[in-house]
Design goal:
single chain; about 270 residues
């Protein structure tokens, strides 16, 4: 395993295929159980090499970046104990933020995987979630992705919404911070109000996220239901009242009929 780890750190075009194959192998191994993930995190030099590869510039590292991010995502997935250590790993989150902020098709896949890593880490406990909220640049980067409407950011925006929802979930202490974070509420509202996103996971997670955060909103800041929604509720109430009233009258008629029959029998 040490040789594989060393291969990820070899630079230059001559080692391109070797580097990519080594990173692919690490990604496959990192799909193991919690003990495997923990062991990989503790493996001397591995995380350092993975972060360094992700941080590399240029098309030469396009595949290697994707493989390294995939390995990090696998290590972070489904192991709360590991996520605590990952969030504290020097340079990892800054590296992810940097990738998410990259423009252009060259970084499209890497950007999407990096957001997946952030989401996986966010599945940690309350302290992990709090730490992520407070990490320099992370919230800003996620909110910036929420604002994106370009097609190349379609998947990235969905993953940013899920990451934010995951950070806020089971963590009511952070809801006020989310509510007051610059640009957060308008960005989420813009997604919810975008008719082209109706029925998508992006819309679904944005609605859930807004519902969570609104728990911390001052009463005067919680908007009333839209007029159309209110009118629909009133129409539904009127319909129910008509049905109940109609059935009540029918019941009265039946009781009156039964009284007539009983009076005849009695006489």
């Amino acid at each position: 395993m040490a040789a594989v780890v060393r291969a990820t750190g070899r630079e230059g075009e001559d080692h391109k295929t070797e580097r990519e194959n080594a990173l692919g192998a690490i990604g496959n191994i990192s799909c193991g159980d919690g003990e495997v993930k923990k062991g990989m995190l503790e493996l001397d030099g591995l995380m350092k090499y993975l972060v360094e590869v992700v941080d590399k510039e240029g098309d030469e590292y396009k595949v290697a970046r994707k493989e390294a991010l995939g390995a990090i995502a696998n290590i972070a997935h489904g192991n709360g104990e590991v996520t605590k250590d990952m969030i504290e790993f020097n340079g990892l989150v800054n590296c992810l933020v940097k990738i998410v902020g990259k423009e252009g098709d060259e970084y499209k896949v890497a950007r999407e995987i990096a957001l997946g890593v952030i989401r996986n880490i966010a599945h940690g406990d309350v302290e992990v979630k709090k730490g992520m909220f407070e990490l320099d640049g992370l919230m800003k980067c996620l909110v910036e992705v929420l604002k994106e409407e370009r097609e190349e950011f379609k998947v990235a925006r969905e993953r940013a919404v899920i990451a934010l929802r995951t950070i806020s979930f089971y963590n009511s202490d952070l809801h006020a911070g989310f509510f007051n974070y610059p640009g957060f509420i308008p960005s989420v509202d813009a997604i919810i109000g975008n008719p082209s996103l109706t029925g998508t996971n992006t819309m679904k997670w944005a609605v859930e996220l807004k519902a969570l955060i609104n728990q911390a909103a001052p009463v005067e800041n919680v908007p009333p239901p839209p007029v159309a929604t209110t009118n629909a509720i009133y129409r539904r109430i009127d319909t129910i009242e008509s049905i109940v009233e109609g059935r009540f009258h029918k019941l009265e008629d039946r009781l009156g009929h039964m009284e007539t029959i009983l009076s005849r029998i009695a006489s």
